[in-house]
Structures are given as structure tokens and as C-alpha cells.
């Protein structure tokens, strides 16, 4: 499942690493893409959305929106 999070508080490469590591601590196989400029974090993971959101929150960042949840590559809005 692919999930897109809008995240506040990320400003540097350290933030990218922290968010990526936090998500991968819950799912080592997760694919994570972080775009600092837009504050977007796209995660492809089998874990529940709430678990991925909690991982980002625990890393010290604020999830302000969740969207683009897909099951097998098709976008759901």
C-alpha cells in the first residue's frame, strides 16, 4: 500500500534520514521517498497507516495530512 503524508518540521538531510529510519524501524522493507521542499513523505509499506503516522510522530515531526492511499498502485482519493 502506498501512503502519502504531509509532514511539518523537516528542513534538512538529517530530517530525511530520521523520518526514513523511523519508518523502516517499523517495516524494514518499506520504500520511503521524502521531498523536503513540499514536505511530502511517500511510503510503500504493508504496515497500517496509523503505524507509519506514529513512526513519523515519534521521530519528532508532525503529520498534517494523509492522502493517496492505494492498495496496488491505483490512486484512491
Describe how the helices and strands are arranged.
Layout: E1 2-8, H1 13-26, E2 31-35, E3 40-44, H2 49-58, E4 62-70
Task: Explain this structure.
- With 77 residues, the protein is α+β, with helices and mostly antiparallel strands.
- It has one domain (2-70): Alpha-Beta Plaits.
- It is 31% helix and 34% strand.
- The protein is built from 2 helices and 4 strands.
- The protein is globular and about 30 Å long.
In short:
The chain contains two helices and four strands, in the order βαββαβ.
- Just give the CATH class: Alpha Beta
The number of helices is: 2
Terminal Cα span: 14 Å
* CATH topology grouping: Alpha-Beta Plaits
Using the 3D structure, state the CATH architecture: 2-Layer Sandwich
Elements, N to C (H/E): EHEEHE
Structural class estimated from helices and strands: alpha+beta
Largest sheet, described in full?
4 strands, antiparallel
Ranges where pLDDT stays below 50 over 5 or more residues in a row are 73-77
Rg, rounded, reads: 11 Å
Shape: globular
Number of strands: 4
Helical content (DSSP H or I, runs of 4+): 25-40%
Structural domains: how many: 1
List keywords for this structure.
single chain; 77 residues; alpha+beta; Alpha-Beta Plaits; 2 helices; disordered C terminus
Amino acid at each position: 500500500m502506498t501512503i502519502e503524508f504531509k509532514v511539518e518540521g523537516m528542513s534538512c538531510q538529517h530530517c530525511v534520514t530520521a523520518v526514513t529510519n523511523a519508518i523502516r524501524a517499523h517495516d524494514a522493507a518499506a520504500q520511503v521517498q521524502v521531498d523536503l521542499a513540499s514536505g511530502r513523505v511517500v511510503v510503500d509499506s504493508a504496515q497500517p497507516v496509523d503505524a507509519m503516522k506514529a513512526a513519523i510522530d515519534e521521530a519528532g515531526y508532525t503529520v498534517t495530512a494523509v492522502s493517496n492511499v492505494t492498495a496496488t498502485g491505483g490512486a484512491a482519493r
